[in-house]
Write a structure and sequence with these properties.
By secondary structure, the protein is α/β, with parallel strands linked by helices. The protein has one domain (6-166): HUPs (Rossmann fold, 3-Layer(aba) Sandwich), CATH 3.40.50. It has six helices and five strands. The protein has helices at 18-28, 52-62, 78-85, 97-113, 133-141, 155-164; strands at 6-11, 33-38, 69-73, 89-94, 118-123. It has a five-stranded parallel sheet with strand order 3-2-1-4-5, with helices on both faces. Helix 4 links the parallel strand 4 (89-94) and strand 5 (118-123). The radius of gyration is 16 Å and the shape is globular. The N and C termini lie far apart (58 Å). The structure holds 4'-phosphopantetheine. Residues 10-12, 39-41, 77-78, 106, 109 line the site of 4'-phosphopantetheine.
């Protein structure tokens, strides 16, 4: 049997955006199997809006139609997770030059920790250049329309959570 090329697509996904999904779909066109993995960003000091379980479940709803995509969560090092899964690639989206320095440092560290996995950067589609999970949280929390930022199927979950937190008041 032909060896499958496995890629992991890591992120905090708090919440997943249309920009993330664009990267995930494009990665699915490049690799046999893509594992989207919800992880912790230890540099992010604010507590997440959604639990890892909630983020995983929301992603699952967004990728049901993609045959070779799956979702998981992991609380340790990305390099260890990629090794555990036998991944040949770590796929990340790059929005702008400002992302590059941090992502480059992460890629070199991950390569040092796991020689088997190459980091592959996909450039964000132009229409998603500005988009991030924190933009979704910020706009949503101030009562703005997030329809263009997140998949329709998870919009009610985000609006509900923002209402619970007293957004737009
Ligand atoms: O969506 P984000 O917040 O940019 O994703 C960052 C993430 C979660 C991929 C990154 O923080 C990460 O890889 N976390 C797992 C722990 C780890 O391996 N850290 C990097 C060691 S150099």
């Amino acid at each position: 049997m032909k060896k499958q090329t496995i890629a992991v697509c890591p992120g905090s996904f708090d919440p997943v955006t249309v920009g993330h999904l664009d990267i995930i779909r494009r990665a699915c066109g490049m690799f046999d199997r893509v594992i989207v993995v919800v992880m912790q960003n230890k540099y992010n000091k604010a507590p997440p809006m959604f639990t890892a379980y909630e983020r995983k479940e929301m992603i699952l709803r967004c990728i049901v139609d993609i045959e070779n995509a799956e979702v998981d969560s992991y609380d340790g090092l990305l390099a260890d997770y990629a090794h555990m899964k036998g991944a040949a690639a770590i796929v990340k989206g790059l929005r702008a030059v400002s992302d590059f320095e941090y992502e480059f440092q992460m890629a070199l560290t991950n390569k040092k920790l796991n020689r088997q996995a190459e980091t592959v950067f996909l450039t964000t589609s132009a229409e998603n250049m500005y988009l991030s999970s924190s933009i979704v949280r910020m706009v949503g929390s101030m009562g703005g329309d997030i329809s263009d930022f997140v998949p329709e199927c998870i919009k009610p979950d985000i609006e509900r959570r923002l209402t619970e937190k007293g957004a737009g008041k």
